[in-house]
């Protein structure tokens, strides 16, 4: 397997990162996800056949501007998220114990791990092409399972005070169909907004938005399930039967309910983050709340005709969500392949290598080949680096913070050659 860049014909030396304009190739937009405006397009920097040090201007070698800021952003999210989650437990845990009792809490906790595992497995599958940093996924989960629950508990009393109901049934309906969709979706999606503001480098597309949203929603549903499962045991004269009914409803029939609600917000925010600047992306947070709240309201509004509504409305919504995620994955792969082809045209990869790096079958073949030489881990890092490089190029072509992303591109191209050497031995 060739792992060496082809070299363009020799010619006058020039700065390969100098801003140049070029016509927008017809294949530059392989899907709706990676749309590039003609005025933002520029060729990939050329590989001149020498070591990368000769290609990269000396004044920009070394630390990449913004990389320290990116690491500090991850650190702030990790530490800040952990602190908020820890403080939230002082509110969340007593609330759960008071509603479920110790036995109900323990049973609910264990039972809630099952639907959580299903959601996290889906996150792993969706995130497999371009895995997000584990620290960000940790933040997302702790936000959903602790912080968003605490925010909900703090805000929801204001909804009760604001509206007076003489009938308990009307109050319960109001809390389920108005308060819960508004407060819970706001609390969950607030974590998405924080990720967008502090980890923009990693939150730059619809797939990222769905991954983070599913993780947050999975954490929220996990804690909420502890409440419902535990309360079914604590408050029923027939705990086993009540628990089985609630578990079937929430753990079997609807493990992805919260994920689909919040996933619509993450999708809209991710699409906005790819196309526009931070201000418009923040506005997308508010817009993205609307479909999430609507879907949440429709779910909680199902009453005596629950089974009919579930089959005719909720099941089609679920399959529509699955189809949408599949389309997102396909678009993401096409975008990666196209951007790598542009680096191939500049001499960094051969076309055959792009097929290995930019397709599922090619990656499987590459990993199998590398495993035969004891270099599977090196190949995995090479595949990940190539995907990150393609995403960096997409950010460059978006026209946002171009010089910052070009500096990141320089460092990534250096790493690509180093990883290439490790793979080939």
Supply Rg: 25 Å
Q: What is the number of helical segments per DSSP (H or I, 4+ residues)?
A: 13
Helix content: over 70%
The class by helix and strand makeup works out as mainly alpha
The overall pLDDT average reads 85
Biggest sheet character: none
Uncertain segments: 5-19, 49-67
How many strand elements? 0
Strand content: under 5%
**What is the subunit organization of this protein?**
single chain
Question: What overall form do the CA principal axes indicate?
Answer: elongated
Explain what you see.
By secondary structure, this protein is mostly helical. The chain has helices at residues 52-55, 67-126, 134-162, 168-198, 206-235, 239-252, 257-275, 278-300, 306-345, 351-357, 360-371, 376-397, 402-424. Helix 2 (67-126) packs across helix 6. It starts with 51 loop residues before the first helix and ends with a helix. Mean pLDDT is 85; it is low at 5-19 and 49-67.
Features:
single chain; 425 residues; mainly alpha; 13 helices
């Amino acid at each position: 397997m060739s792992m060496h860049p082809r070299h363009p014909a020799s010619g006058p030396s020039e700065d390969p990162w100098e801003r140049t304009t070029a016509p927008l190739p017809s294949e530059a937009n392989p899907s709706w996800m990676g749309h590039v405006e003609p005025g933002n397009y520029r060729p990939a920097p050329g590989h001149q056949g020498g070591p990368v040090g000769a290609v990269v201007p000396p004044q920009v070698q070394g630390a990449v501007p913004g990389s320290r800021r990116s690491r500090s952003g991850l650190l702030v999210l990790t530490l800040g998220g952990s602190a908020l989650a820890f403080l939230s437990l002082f509110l969340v845990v007593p609330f759960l114990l008071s509603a479920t009792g110790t036995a109900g809490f323990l049973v609910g906790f264990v039972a809630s791990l099952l639907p959580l595992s299903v959601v996290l497995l889906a996150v792993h599958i969706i995130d497999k092409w371009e895995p997000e940093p584990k620290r960000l996924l940790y933040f997302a989960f702790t936000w959903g399972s602790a912080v968003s629950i605490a925010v909900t508990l703090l805000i929801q009393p204001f909804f009760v005070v604001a509206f007076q109901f003489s009938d308990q049934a009307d109050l319960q309906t109001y809390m389920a169909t108005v308060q819960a969709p508004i407060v819970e979706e706001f609390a969950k999606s607030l974590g998405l907004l924080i990720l967008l503001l502090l980890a923009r480098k990693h939150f730059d597309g619809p797939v990222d938005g769905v991954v983070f949203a599913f993780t947050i929603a999975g954490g929220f549903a996990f804690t909420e399930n502890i409440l419902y499962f535990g309360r079914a045991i604590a408050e029923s004269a027939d705990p086993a039967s009540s628990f089985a009914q609630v578990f079937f409803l929430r753990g079997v029939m609807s493990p992805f309910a919260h994920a689909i609600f919040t996933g619509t917000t993450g999708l809209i925010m991710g699409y906005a983050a790819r196309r526009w600047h931070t201000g418009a992306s923040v506005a997308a947070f508010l817009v993205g709340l609307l479909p999430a709240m609507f879907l949440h309201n429709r779910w909680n509004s199902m009453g005596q005709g629950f089974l009919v509504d579930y089959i005719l409305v909720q099941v089609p919504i679920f399959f529509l969500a699955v189809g949408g995620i599949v389309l997102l994955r396909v678009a993401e792969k096409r975008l990666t392949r196209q951007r790598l082809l542009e680096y191939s045209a500049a001499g960094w990869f051969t076309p055959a290598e792009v097929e290995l790096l930019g397709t599922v079958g090619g990656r499987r073949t590459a990993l199998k080949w590398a495993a035969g030489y004891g270099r599977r881990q090196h190949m995995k890092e090479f595949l990940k680096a190539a995907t990150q490089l393609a995403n960096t190029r997409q950010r460059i072509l978006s026209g946002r913070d171009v010089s910052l992303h070009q500096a990141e591109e320089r460092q990534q191209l250096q790493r690509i050659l180093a990883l290439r050497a490790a793979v080939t031995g």
